[in-house]
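INSTRUCTION: Work out how this chain folds

Fields: amino acid sequence; protein backbone structure tokens

Chain under study, with its fold:
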Amino acid sequence: MSRIGKRPVAIPSGVTANIDNGTLTVKGPKGTLAMGLADEVEYKLEDDAISVKPANDTRRSRDFWGMQRTLVANLVDGVTEGYTKVLEISGVGYRAQAQGKRLKLQLGYSHDVDLEVPEGIEVKTPDQTTVEISGIDKQAVGQFAAEVRRWRKPEPYKGKGIKYRGEYVFRKEGKKK
């Protein structure tokens, strides 16, 4: 039995959910999100909650159960609060600048890295070494943050690079004399 899957997803006030033609649509104060429903799982709209349970007793249905419940919860959280990832840039001359729907990174390459910000994602740079990526879709926010981080992952010797806020980079000592 899935401990996560057993709990229904509460729908807060101001949020509406609708199941139609194999699609769950959730509307809230921050926007609208939709998700295709898996055939292995049953979804029920009850009073102020969405419950998820396996459609049959196969292993595949039980495997999908907890994951699908979490995806539904992510939709509800996204349209009410949204998601934010904060990246910190460390290194001499490394900096970032948001310019409309583009993110300009200077990371020690011979050229600047210009990234196009996807639709539904908002990027802010409160200072030159901090990038805040926010949006209502958890997967899209995490994916864009990973793409930005990919350009200069933190290295273990000096700690230079792009890391998530709160991420610990294990530092190596180097050679001993």
In short: The radius of gyration is 21 Å. The first strand starts at residue 9 and ends at 10. The first helix runs from residue 3 to 6. The chain is about 20% helix and 40% strand.
